[in-house]
Amino acid sequence: MAISSYCERLDLAFWAEPLNAVTNAAFLLAGLAALRLIRRDRPADRALLGLSALVMLIGVGSFLFHTVPARWSLLADVVPIQLFAVCYVGLALRRMLGLSPRAALAGSVLFLAACLGLAAVLAPVLPPPIRGAAGYAGFLAGLFGMALAVSLRGVRVTARHLALCGAVFMLSLGFRSLDGALCAQWPAGLHWAWHLLNGLVLYLLLRTAALHARSAA
Question: With contact defined as beta carbons under 8 Å apart, do 91 and 213 qualify?
Fold first, then answer.
């Protein structure tokens, strides 16, 4: 069953979303840039190397969905994003807030459940053009919440970096929401800006974790 919900797509052709497809290169570049940064440390942080590879997988999955819109490619798009969010939250809880491995794991699972619950509450009340943003509201709240928690723990530099990630993600989410709302005025859509800014967000998140690890060491 084909799925089409973006302003740029007018039919089911492979290249019907050229901007949305090509801008997934932002995730590949973000992952490669993060790998280069992380490999400067010896030994390289395996957890961050894995997250960097996952960022590139996000780009592959999103490319598949924006070229072959179907339920299987939707899963290839969504699952790596959720997996990155859960893993990054778990890493942040462990390394930035000092939780035990078991508590960090439980916290990351609860975070995902809270995000899904918030999306279920928001989606029915949001206008259809911006309803898709509901699924990411929890991620935005999580970024600012983590920044606040880290700041209260006294790690101000890392907190500022996380807040910057939250600010860029807020802008990114705004472009994603406007894609459908301004479709008549901007036929090419704005979803491509979501890709570019999210690539930046993911790189900044990995950079934040890498810099925090260096300072802790």
Answer: no
